[in-house]
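## tool: complex_structure
## caller: assistant
## args:
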Amino acid sequence: MRLTEFFMPTLKENPNEAQIVSHRFMLRAGMIRQSSAGIYSWLPLGHRVLKKIEQIVREEQDRAGAQELLMPTIQPAEIWRESGRYDDYGKEMLRITDRHDRDMLYGPTNEELITEIFRDSVRSYRDLPKMLYHIQWKFRDEVRPRFGIMRGREFLMKDCYSFDLDYDGARRAYNRMFVAYLRTFQRLGLKAIPMAADPGPIGGDMSHEFMILAETGESEVACHINLLDLDIDLMGLDPKGDMQSTVDSLTSYYAATDEKRDPAIEAGLGDDLTVARGIEVGHIFYFGTKYSVAMNAYVNNEKGDKVAIEMGSYGIGVSRLVGGIIEASHDDDGIIWPEAVAPFDAGIINLRSGDEKCDAASEEIYLKLGNAGKDALIDDRDQRGGVKFADMDLIGLPWQIIVGPRGLENGVVELKSRASGEREEMSIDAALNKLTGSVG
RNA sequence: CGGGGAGUGGCGCAGUCUGGUAGCGCAUUCGACUGGGGGUCGAAAGGUCGGAGGUUCAAAUCCUCUCUCCCCGACCA
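## result:
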């Protein structure tokens, strides 16, 4: 992509409404624009990141054995009356009336809808287990949206639902998602810590929130320091296994969100305790037969008995992750994208657009990177170096290739790592080689 | 929903107390010079001062109502 053609309206100054880092950088880098409180448009740069995160989440869901479907954003009130949540949900639910005066709503979550779909089609234990997920926009009419995309009213979420015949099956599904989440966050370049969360009315130990630690986190969390550097080989695990030992080893350490913290345990941990602020990026929980009973979702088991389906739900805040990653990875100059989610693999800074040699060298690098399957953004604007450096640092691409007349005289360009700030002079071929793993 | 703050060119702000017909920086357009970390000079374009009503010879400025946004708290993926 050429910057002269790309729609990326960057801002030099901090917009007044943005207080936290991720919000400021997302606005300044031209990733998003606010439409109204808690509702945003995703501009091309932000949209690229969102899609990359979404794709990684999707791949790990598929790998865990879940199947993707897509449910609508608008739901009928009817099914929510059936589950009893229509009145419970309160003002956070955006209620709509259609032209026939039928009560509708913009879905804040999808338990009712998925349960309806499932119960209407499944009668036998032979159809279980199943895991179904979708990645869809949700709406919760928060009283006070804040932190930009991190706590908007409209947000993109992956939610998965598991259907099992019995508790053991539900536990297996839970474990699989538990591990899938760890893998997902690992691939996103994040350290997400699973923490015991409030399981709600069902009780038990099957409710975890996945938190990334950042100063701007919304709540205070605590965990054993070993969890901070735990290195488990998730990639080698059999995705179809029960994973109980992996989950056990991870949950053996103390880790608790705000409402689950235990002062007695924490006192006993002494120096092994870390207290920090956390951003919730995922939440998994088992809720048993809460919805299946309320909404009449039963199957016949092998003996012909009618049993309520055991369910669990598993959410990842996809749009929130964009902000979360920035909170966890930035410096004073801007964003520092992990390679897996960066909107482009590399940025090429042509320090003298219009200069024959600089243009030729920049174009060569751009084309060869493209041929090697690398997505590059080339700054071909007629701007001064300082402007280009600042914008490139702001948008945080992992690598910068700096092409200037001074270097070209000696046959070199500079390769800069955004994360470390290190710059190295080398030939064009060497730079290409380093970025693509083969000689351009 | 309680408490606080703010709406003035695209962005950041001054002007409001003490009414006199709108200004600064950045960005934008054109020209020239410049060229390795947000340049210089010259010219230009762009605002019914959130909206409605009122007071007044005269309102960004005073009064009333209203909308929106931000921050703290309660609440939440």
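## assistant note: Chain A has a mean pLDDT of 93. Residues 167-187 of chain A form the longest helix (21 residues). Handing back to user.
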